[in-house]
Amino acid sequence: MAVDTPADVAAAREKLKARFDQVRTGGKGTARRTHIAKHTNHAADDKQLQVQLKRLGCNDIPGIEEVNMFKDDGSVLHFNAPKVQASVASNTFVISGHADIKKLEELLPGIINQLGPDNLMNLKRIAESFAASKGGDKAEAGEDDIPDVGDNFEDEASSDEVAPLTSELPQAPRERRG
Question: Is 51 buried (19+), middle (13-18) or exposed (0-12) by CB count in 10 A?
Answer without folding.
Answer: exposed
